Each structure stands twice: as structure tokens, then as C-alpha cells.
């Protein structure tokens, strides 16, 4: 069966992109990464992608008069490359409703919180300030309103009492590197459908036990 053609959009470090590259490079890899695209020419992730032999492209938003023309260029490049699914991975530009609707149900994002809680930036500092016992990360289909859309996979991460935002970010990032490849695999295997703006996953198993923080006893 032909592998799903995906593009990964980044702006910086690109560790989530790396986790997708790694899962796609296995013999039963779920998808083929046909492009890594960045709006920042010196994004660290671009070098990794180049070294991995993946076509890369920079489209610098500053070279366009407005968001629409910037996004039109991105869409044209994605279509040229035959992209079927777009994975946002630390792409730090707000996207217009027009772009999001063009790629509706073919555009996914990873966010470092348990959505719908803690949309936006600085999630870990806000979680700690609130004294929440759990946070996590979410892979979701993108809808026009920021950090909304049907949820595909989440991981819950306990918050330690002495966590600072950096420690917590590291543990959440480890979980991100597990769930983004999983979500991609589920989509590529054709197991994910959206009904009434909710995701259904064929054959998905739900863990039944709860996790308590602090631990009992
Ligand atoms: C991740 O925390 C992701 O959840 C958020 O931006 C960060 C990107 O990190 N959207 P990286 O560039 O993938 O390392």
C-alpha cells in the first residue's frame, strides 16, 4: 500500500519532527515525510532533516506582505510535493481560518497540555502556578480557533511537587515524542475518523486503571 505523504512544519528545535522522522524510517514506517518546511531559515530542525536526506524548504513569513500570501505559498509548495497530511510541530505562526479550512482534517498539531486545558503559550508555568497534579500533551486535528480541534491522542504526565517549568517541559516532551508517532501511525493506517467533530479510532484500547498523584501510601 502507498505510504501517506506528509509534511512537517517547524520553526525551531524540531524534536517532534525528529520523532516523526525516526518512526517513518523504520521498515514498517507508517508514512513518508516528503518535506520539512520552516518559516525560520536557521531552525535547528532543518539541519537534522537535511542530514536525514529529507527535502527541506524555508518560507520566511517576513518576505510576504500578509499572512494570506505567506500561507498561499506554503499551500502551493505542499500541493507540489503531493502532501496528504500536514503535521505542525512547533510551527510558531498563527494560521488563518482560510489555511486551516483548506487543509481541514488533513492538518494536525501537537500541543504541550491536556487540551482543552491550557491553550496557548507557557503551559508548564501555568500548570505549576495552578498546583495541578497532572498535565500532558495532545495531538489534535486543527480547527481555526487556536489549540482547538478533535483530539486524537493524549498522554497524561504527573506534576512533581518540586517541578519547575523546565523539568516539567522535559517530561512532557518525552511524552510528546511517544504520542505524535502513535497518532501518525493511527492516521496512516486509516483507523482514525471524525464524527461530529470527535475522533473515533478503530480498534483502540483504553487503559482502565487510574493514576493517582501523589501516589497512595
Ligand atoms: C513542543 O512542546 C510542542 O508541543 C509545541 O512546540 C514545542 C516544539 O518543540 N507545539 P520541538 O521543536 O518539536 O522540539
Give structural attributes.
alpha/beta, Rossmann fold, globular, 2 domains, binds 5-O-phosphono-beta-D-ribofuranosylamine, 7-stranded mixed sheet, two-stranded antiparallel sheet, 217 residues
Measured by DSSP, the beta-strand proportion falls in 15-25%
By DSSP (H or I, 4+ residues per run), the number of helices equals 6
The SS-based structural class is: alpha/beta
CATH first level of the largest domain = Alpha Beta
Overall geometry: globular
Note down, in words, how this protein is organized:
This protein has helices at 15-24, 44-51, 67-80, 97-102, 123-130, 165-188, and strands spanning 4-10, 31-38, 56-58, 85-88, 107-111, 134-141, 151-158, 192-195, 198-201. It has 217 residues and is α/β, with parallel strands linked by helices. The chain folds into two domains: 1-103, 3-Layer(aba) Sandwich (Rossmann fold); 109-204, Rossmann fold, CATH 3.40.50. Helix 1 links the parallel strand 1 and strand 2 (31-38). Helix 1 runs parallel beside helix 6 (165-188). The N and C termini lie far apart (51 Å). The model has no long low-confidence stretch (mean pLDDT 97). Bound molecules: 5-O-phosphono-beta-D-ribofuranosylamine. 5-O-phosphono-beta-D-ribofuranosylamine binds at residues 10, 12-16, 89-90, 110-112, 173, 176. Residues 10, 12-16, 89-90, 110-112, 173, 176 line the site of 5-O-phosphono-beta-D-ribofuranosylamine (GRF).
Amino acid at each position: 500500500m502507498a505510504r501517506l505523504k506528509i509534511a512537517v512544519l517547524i520553526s525551531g528545535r524540531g524534536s517532534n519532527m525528529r520523532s516523526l522522522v525516526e518512526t517513518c524510517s523504520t521498515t514498517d514506517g507508517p508514512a513518508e515525510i516528503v518535506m520539512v518546511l520552516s518559516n525560520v531559515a536557521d531552525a535547528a530542525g532543518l539541519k537534522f532533516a537535511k542530514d536525514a536526506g529529507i527535502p527541506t524548504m524555508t518560507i520566511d513569513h517576513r518576505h510576504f506582505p500578509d499572512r494570506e500570501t505567506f500561507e498561499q505559498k506554503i499551500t502551493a509548495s505542499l500541493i507540489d510535493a503531493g502532501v496528504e497530511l500536514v503535521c505542525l510541530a512547533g510551527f510558531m505562526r498563527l494560521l488563518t481560518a482560510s489555511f486551516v479550512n483548506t487543509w481541514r482534517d488533513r492538518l494536525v498539531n501537537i500541543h504541550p497540555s491536556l487540551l482543552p486545558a491550557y491553550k496557548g503559550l507557557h503551559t508548564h508555568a501555568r500548570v505549576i502556578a495552578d498546583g495541578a497534579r497532572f498535565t500532558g500533551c495532545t495531538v489534535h486535528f486543527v480547527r481555526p480557533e487556536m489549540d482547538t480541534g478533535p483530539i486524537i491522542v493524549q498522554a497524561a504526565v504527573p506534576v512533581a511537587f518540586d517541578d519547575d517549568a523546565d523539568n516539567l517541559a522535559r517530561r512532557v516532551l518525552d511524552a510528546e515524542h511517544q504520542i505524535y508517532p502513535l497518532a501518525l501511525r493511527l492516521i496512516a493506517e486509516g483507523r482514525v475518523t471524525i464524527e461530529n467533530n470527535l475522533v473515533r479510532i478503530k480498534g483502540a484500547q483504553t487503559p482502565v486503571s487510574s493514576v493517582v498523584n501523589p501516589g497512595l501510601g
